[in-house]
Specification:
The protein is of the alpha+beta class. Helix content is 38%, strand content 32%. Strands 1, 2, 3, 4, 5 and 6 form a six-stranded antiparallel beta sheet that branches.
């Protein structure tokens, strides 16, 4: 009986932890072509490069979760910044989307970040 109680308690505790990031993947063409496409699409969506590049094998970009005017209205909004880490590997394009608060702490990504990640996959993957 004791073992069953601890097992259930562990599940309840773990189920309270929410992921603060999202991951997306899709088949992709050659890495060099993909990275050029990703950089261009990220720039069109308003993201600023933070690190990486074609030679590093990944790209990290950051952008506002909402336009400045909406951000001022939605003071209680979760993410102030979306950070995308994009990696082409083994014929796949992987995107990790993280949300950050104004203080730089991890939080749920915004709907805009999710839409942007899906847009990049749709335009740069096969």
């Amino acid at each position: 009986m004791r073992k069953a109680f601890f097992g259930v308690a562990g599940v309840v505790v773990l189920s309270g932890c929410a992921a603060t990031y999202r991951q997306y993947s899709a088949p992709a063409p050659a890495a060099a072509n993909t990275m050029d496409c990703v950089l261009g699409q990220a720039a069109l969506l308003g993201y600023t490069p933070l690190g990486g590049g074609r030679s590093e094998g990944y790209l990290r970009v950051e952008g506002r979760a909402e336009p400045a005017i909406v951000e001022r209205i939605n003071v209680g909004a979760s993410a102030a910044t979306n950070r995308l880490t994009i990696t082409p590997a083994a014929g796949q394009l992987h995107i990790r989307l993280d949300g950050l608060t104004r203080e730089g702490k991890a939080t749920e990504p915004s709907a805009k970040g999710e839409a942007d990640a899906k847009t990049i996959l749709a335009r740069c993957a096969r």
